[in-house]
Amino acid sequence: MMLFSATLYLASTWLLVDAGIAKETVTTCVDNVVHRLSCDLESVISVETSLYGRKDNVTCNEGKSPDEVSNTNCSLVGVANVVKERCNGKKVCELSTDVFGRSDPCGATAKYLQTTYTCLPAFHRVICEHSLSDLSCDQGQVIVVHGADYGRRDQTTCLYGRPANQIQNTACSSPTSTVAESCQGKNSCIIKASNSVFGDPCVGTYKYLEVAYHCQYAVTPDEQI
């Protein structure tokens, strides 16, 4: 298990927004530690922005020289897309800042990883491999998929009747857009958790599909005008 450095500075700031949903900003200051996003039981992560670099000279400046914090126009391209792919639709998401540290946008600058996200109310479904599940909404509503992953992230989910060697690999879960492509905008949708649908991210491991979605009333073309 990765230990948090004593120099890690982790800041979480809650801001109220008009829709009644809170935004949280998490800042992780040092490399090779875990950047952790989390939501309560009945909600899932929806990433808005994410920065690896530096945009001011105040954040994570403890113990740094003026030269290390003077470049405030430093950011790695594509960070938000990576964090969204890994974290959207999950209740908890952890990723190492080392993932981004391998590409250095500004060599002599002290960098940090900062993510702003909201926790959206959502249904969370777990579908064991070879099983079917019907995602459905009330009449007049349609499915909005927040995220989906196929693989295995722990040894306790979908373990009944499985030998130890089929559940021990917990680092094989992969994000998939297949659920959104099949179900987005529909009132109901049947999904099968299988390698034939999602590919096989870890041969020999018994997998499961995790899906997070919510239902909203369909918007007609007249309402969009």
UniProtKB/TrEMBL annotation:
Keywords: Hemagglutinin, Lectin, Repeat, Signal. The keyword Repeat applies. Residues 1-19 form the signal peptide. PROSITE patterns: SUEL_LECTIN (PS50228). One of its GO terms (molecular function) is carbohydrate binding. Pfam families: SUEL_Lectin. Residues 37-120, 127-216 form the SUEL-type lectin domain. This is SUEL-type lectin domain-containing protein.
